[in-house]
TrEMBL record:
Domain HTH marR-type: 1-148
Protein name, UniProt field: MarR family transcriptional regulator
GO biological process terms on file: response to stress
PROSITE patterns, per the entry: HTH_MARR_2
Pfam families given in the database record: HTH_27 (PF13463)
Highest rank taxon of the organism: Bacteria
GO molecular function: DNA-binding transcription factor activity
Organism of derivation: Streptomyces niveus
Signal peptide: none
Length: 155
């Protein structure tokens, strides 16, 4: 770590503060809307979307935690809550006694199928509709650049 902090310039601070405020406001609003519309928490939604869109309905526990960038303990608590409500099930991995699969149940599929169309409309109304296609393309390039940069940095 450097002895002298590399403070942000005023322009950098404005960019950073604006980004954080937008991100926190958007995520907070979307989380409240998901809860109000579907009685699912934002965490429930993230897990079910990850399982159904990317995982084909089932994923190894650690792969799911990594995909959503959560610690193992947070994912464990979330899966326990969702299992209690019947949204997911935990299945032992036959070829690895220590591993487990998290599987979306029929109730989990029904919940995400009902919530997703309403959620995407909120995303469109609050975010997509505020930007031009060129701005969206630029934002995607910037986001991908930052993600690639972060992959090269120590955690």
């Amino acid at each position: 770590m450097n002895a002298t902090p590399r403070w942000l310039t005023s322009e950098q601070k404005v960019a950073w503060d604006s980004f954080i405020r937008m991100q926190e406001t958007l995520i907070g609003r979307l989380s409240r809307l998901v809860q109000a519309d579907s009685q699912m928490s934002a965490s429930d939604y993230i897990v079910l979307v990850s399982l159904t869109e990317r995982g084909g309905g089932r994923m190894r526990f650690l792969d799911l935690a990594k995909l959503v960038e959560w610690e193992k303990s947070r994912m464990s608590h979330q899966v326990r809550r969702m299992t209690t409500r019947g949204l997911v099930a935990r299945e032992e991995c036959p070829d690895d006694g220590r591993g487990a699969f998290i599987v979306a149940t029929p109730a989990g599929y029904k919940a995400i199928e009902e919530a997703a169309p309403v959620h995407v409309e909120h995303v469109r109304r609050l975010f997509i509709d505020a930007l031009t296609q060129e701005e969206l393309d630029t934002l995607a390039r910037i986001s991908n650049r930052v993600l690639a940069h972060m992959e090269k940095q120590p955690d």
